[in-house]
Amino acid sequence: MSLLIQNGTIITPDQRYVADILIQGESIYRIAPVIDTSDVGDVEIIDAEGKYVFPGFIDPHVHIYLPFMGTYAKDTYDSGSRAALVGGTTTLIEMCCPAREDDPWDAYQLWKGKAEGLSACDYSFHMGVTRFDETTEPLLRRIVADGVTSFKVFLAYKGAFGVSDEELYRTCRLAKDLGVVVTAHCENADLVAQLQTSLVAAGKTGPEFHEPSRPVAVEAEGVHHFCTFLKMTGAAGYIVHTSCRDAVEAALKFQVQGVDVNLETVIPYLVLDKTYAERPNFEGAKYVMSPPIRDLSHQDYLWNALRSGVISTVATDHAPFDFVGQKEMGKPPESDFTKIPNGIPSVEHRPTLLYTHGVATGRIDLHRFVELLSTSAAKQFGMFPRKGSIQPGCDADLVIWDPDYRGTISAATHTMNTDYDGFEGFPIIGRPAVVTCRGKVSVRDGQFTGTLGHGRQVARSTKGSDVDSMATP
Ligand code: DUC
Ligand code: ZN
Ligand code: ZN
Ligand code: ZN
């Protein structure tokens, strides 16, 4: 069965035009003002008049399988990939986060095994480097050869995932050698530990003290620290979940020196502020993530950085934990914000929140919207033009977007597997009417219609490699 998407307004970072798109199998076959399908055989026609057609969105920073802070993140690839697709995200890049003592290859197989045969959308991984000793390099080379062309390091969470400076240096050296990107969580772990200890000792134990335990200076120091290692090694870097002006400015100082470093922010920082973590009755725990949700004064700066291109991608850092039983691990009478699992579920809502608060308010235009949600990640992580574009030969990952939709976010209707929604009651403008993932209609009118197990791991290319990402399926 072929698919004909008729009369949609196709939006890419540099184009806007009305055309028909013919999908055959898993790929886009033809794009033309009018496509006659009388000789094509069995065709389903989808009317996209008055709707936008975007390349499938890519979320380059999610956690699905995540043993963390004494518990496990709540989604599996069943709920996680369905939630992603309902929102318009057709490719996930998940952080593979082995514990320090784990064998990296075994961990990679474990993470892969959670997605294979279950995910309804496409996926890849950033390989967490949580230790670097004499056994590490050949294993990482093997993982990169399998199409996982980025590493992830944590400067925070020392003891669990965090690396030493020697390990960071060796990771960046190897990344430079292999042409892979080092993605990094930038917060100074020792400063966080000291500040946490002081706050708890002073009886400041509620969720509202999570932000003061990781202030903007702690994040900016992490950015400066990481960028110094990029500068010394020549490796390419990507700073995940940049939350504030201070962190962006720290990175800019290195960008202008020629350091190859790109910045990501995540949707919670663009629409929430730290007063959410001050909500009574321990509700603030729902908004504990790291780096923390900041003071409102940072939001405009982040939006301007998105518009101007200083920040290149909007991801989620989707890390879903229930309120009851999980966020409550830090609840009174033994209240301790350091025991609240860090993370806000958001993989489902990123596109509609960016549309509502970005496009509909005029902060960004439709082209930038597509770039931030799809094309930029495809380019930076070796998937372009197979992903992140709309042209013949590329994967038929498409979002047919209804700009006239109006709705409200609620845990009662969301697809994510958590008992709360951090954006409960938020009004939204626009949502996907239809989503295709490699030609498979996976969403219609907000409902998942795809197939679990349809998703495939995307083999990504390294930086500077001549590999045409569309050459092999
Ligand atoms: N930050 C979070 O908030 N959750 C998961 C890991 C991280 O870095
Ligand atoms: Zn992180
Ligand atoms: Zn430092
Ligand atoms: Zn993360």
From TrEMBL:
<dbReference type="InterPro" id="IPR011778">
    <property type="entry name" value="Hydantoinase/dihydroPyrase"/>
</dbReference>
<dbReference type="InterPro" id="IPR006680">
    <property type="entry name" value="Amidohydro-rel"/>
</dbReference>
<dbReference type="InterPro" id="IPR032466">
    <property type="entry name" value="Metal_Hydrolase"/>
</dbReference>
<keyword id="KW-0479">Metal-binding</keyword>
<dbReference type="GO" id="GO:0016787">
    <property type="term" value="F:hydrolase activity"/>
</dbReference>
<dbReference type="Pfam" id="PF01979">
    <property type="entry name" value="Amidohydro_1"/>
</dbReference>
<keyword id="KW-0378">Hydrolase</keyword>
<comment type="similarity">
    <text>Belongs to the metallo-dependent hydrolases superfamily. Hydantoinase/dihydropyrimidinase family.</text>
</comment>
<dbReference type="InterPro" id="IPR050378">
    <property type="entry name" value="Metallo-dep_Hydrolases_sf"/>
</dbReference>
<protein>
    <submittedName>
        <fullName>D-hydantoinase</fullName>
        <ecNumber>3.5.2.-</ecNumber>
    </submittedName>
</protein>
<dbReference type="InterPro" id="IPR011059">
    <property type="entry name" value="Metal-dep_hydrolase_composite"/>
</dbReference>
<feature type="region of interest" description="Disordered">
    <location>
        <begin position="452"/>
        <end position="473"/>
    </location>
</feature>
<feature type="domain" description="Amidohydrolase-related">
    <location>
        <begin position="52"/>
        <end position="414"/>
    </location>
</feature>
